[in-house]
Design a protein that fits this description.
This protein is of the alpha+beta class and about 400 residues long. The protein contains twelve helices and 14 strands. Among the domains are: about 35 residues, no CATH class; about 150 residues, Nucleotidyltransferase, domain 5 (2-Layer Sandwich), CATH 3.30.420.10; about 45 residues, SH3 type barrels (Roll). The strands form four sheets. It has a five-stranded mixed β-sheet with strand order 4-3-2-5-6, with helices on both faces. The radius of gyration is 41 Å and the shape is elongated. About 10% of the residues have low confidence. GO terms for molecular function: nucleic acid binding.
Length: about 400
């Protein structure tokens, strides 16, 4: 009844306190809102978790990130970039089938060798049985990023954008010529992360200069760059930790509810989890696509029946209050005739004449004798106020 409008925790507390109150009201209202199924499946995406950079590879061409770019001028491009040296391989292709992808990768492997790990998204040409068999036969481990989470393969996504920008800026010549010019300039230019050109890292050859003895530590520069990127990224991030067995909701990108209930059954990394859905499906999700699921407790379910009447909070009529620090009221008995034998004692005189043993906070009551005087009453004509159509008498 109190959560029919599905308001948030703060508004629900304010609304409830204006009518009822009971012990532990805040905790029960928070649990009621958190465990509401409708509120959980209709909420927006949670804040992103802190950035988890990829580990720095041990050598060049050890971990390769791949992705498709395009169509651009009617062509598609298979982009491959080395995580260590930032060396980029680009192949123009029209069909993007699995067979075409494998043939283009063979050309790069024939020149640079076989990598240890290949990272890709979940496109059909990267998830087919033929592609998986090709990688297994060559001893390459395949890592796939979560669906609809391109930032997990950010190196490849950045390479695709760099390629498109370069091809647009280069004028003159065919598409193949512009691609060759772009790759040549890219491979001989020092990278912002490593501080060295990709070609120098891959082949170990560069033009000799007096600055060769000042060759920087690439790993230190990369870690420093990752730390700066992480510090900037984590400003608006919020840490969320999950473990195996947690009840969660996962983001649904297909038709149906926006969030689907499930249970974490496997940890695939720092931010990747395998979730078992209620229909038996197993999906891999990033922490950004997972939120905590809260279940109603037995205490909450019993309180929802409203078996006991709540305490109604009402505002009583204003009544005069007596301050505990004030003295007791002065007793003034009235007499018809003045008593000349007893002088009138004022409160100040009474307080001065009190004995030292008696506390000053509780003075003795003062009695005075007054003559019977006629009460003076006002002759002003008074009328009761009329408010909202009816007189209110005070």
């Amino acid at each position: 009844m109190l959560h029919e409008g599905h308001t948030g925790i703060v508004r629900m507390k304010s609304f409830t306190r204006s009518y009822v109150w009971w012990p532990g009201i805040d905790a029960e209202l928070e649990q009621c809102v958190k465990s509401c199924v409708s509120c959980q499946i209709q909420r927006k995406s949670p804040p992103v978790v802190p950035l988890h950079p990829w580990a720095w590879p041990e050598r060049a061409w050890s971990r390769v990130h791949i992705d498709y770019a395009g169509p651009f001028e009617g062509k598609s491009f298979l982009v491959m970039i080395d995580a260590y040296s930032k060396w980029m391989e680009v192949h123009i292709t029209n069909p993007t089938t699995t067979a075409a992808t494998i043939e283009l990768m063979r050309k790069s492997f024939a020149t640079l060798g076989l990598p240890d790990v290949v990272v890709s998204d979940n496109a059909a040409n990267f998830t087919s049985l033929e592609f998986s068999t090709f990688l297994k036969r060559n001893g390459i481990r395949h890592v796939r990023t979560p669906p609809y989470h391109p930032s997990s393969n950010g190196i490849a996504e950045r390479a695709v954008q760099t390629l498109k920008d370069g091809l647009r800026k280069i004028k003159g010549g065919s598409l193949e010529t512009r691609l060759s010019r772009f790759l040549f300039k890219y491979r001989i230019t020092p990278h912002s992360v490593t501080g060295i050109s990709p070609g120098e890292i891959i082949f170990g050859r560069r033009l000799h200069s007096h600055l060769d003895h000042l060759r920087p530590n690439m790993e230190k520069k990369a870690n420093l760059n990752n730390d700066r990127q992480k510090q900037w990224y984590d400003v608006h991030a919020k840490q969320r930790l999950f473990k195996i067995g947690d009840l969660v909701y996962i983001r649904n990108y297909a038709t149906g509810p926006q969030w689907l209930p499930g249970k974490i059954i496997e940890l695939n990394g720092n931010v990747l989890f395998t979730v078992l859905l209620e229909d038996g499906r197993r999906v891999r999700k990033h922490t950004d696509q997972i939120i905590q699921r809260y279940e109603r407790s037995n205490t909450q379910e019993s309180n929802d029946d409203f078996s006991e009447d709540p305490i109604v909070v009402s505002t009583p009529n204003p009544s005069p209050t007596v301050n505990a620090s004030q003295s007791p009221p002065i007793q003034l008995p009235l007499t018809t005739e003045p008593d000349h034998s007893s002088p009138i004692q004022s409160p100040s005189l009474s307080s001065r004449s009190s004995t030292p043993n008696r506390s000053s906070s509780t003075p003795e009551p003062v009695t005075t004798s007054l003559t019977n005087r006629p009460v003076r009453r006002s002759t002003r004509s008074r009328h009761s106020p009329k408010r909202y159509g009816s007189p209110v008498r005070y």
